[in-house]
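Standup, Tuesday
Yesterday: got the pipeline producing structure tokens again.
Today: sanity-check two examples.
Blockers: none.

Example 1:
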Amino acid sequence: MGIGLLLASWASHGQSVFKCTEDGKTVYQSAPCRHQGKEVAISAGPTAQQIADARRQADKEKSQTRSSRSSGPDLRRPNLADRYVPPVDCKKLNEDRAFQFGQRNAALRHSRHSNQDASGIVQDAYRRIIEIESRMKQGGCKPD
């Protein structure tokens, strides 16, 4: 990349660039080669007008792509209205939630009295509580 920038900067100033081979290595320089090499033709980059035209064209194509996507159904995502959601048993979810809180509290009490690590049991119970509360929220249930 450094060579490309070097070549571009030389080309923008109208200087010649020579690609030379010295001691089996390729070297780029502004002076003609002593042994073997040739002048490299470097074309100027796009003009500011060409860049602006390309950006306008890209923006136009992007907006056409967006409008064509929004005009029809999105086939990548299922229609949520068509998806079956089983009815929620709020009483059962509240019972499961209470049981998990009991499991968590029992593990905490046990670890305090026996000085044993029960963090895995506590974390599992807490994860289940979060899952149950999420289902309760989706189903419109209120915690007891």
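Example 2:
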Amino acid sequence: MSILELKSVFQQFAVKTCRLGVLILSLFFLNVHAVSPLDINSATVEQFAAVLSGVGEAKAKSIVAFRDQNGRFETVEELIKVKGIGRALLNKNRTFITVNDEQNTVINTGNQPTDS
């Protein structure tokens, strides 16, 4: 192999490695964003449907309607008061949700189930 051929192979390798690095960084940043818990006091129908497993548009609308009628959630456990949201569905999505107060301070995460 000549020096020109080696140079060409090296350049191709460098380009592929750079593309792979960009892809890995992109996936990392997407993953970090995806892991941020969803505040059930401010989430939209679209956000509920996109983030929560087993929650489509109908259940998401029920959550938002319940919140509009009854006020802010104090804990993530209160989601089971919404028609169509049971303990199993709540437990499946527990790590993806949180409750923030009006100042956007986390007051209850879904990671710690309560005994109620």
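Quick observation on example 2: The chain has a mean pLDDT of 81. The two ends are 73 Å apart (CA to CA).
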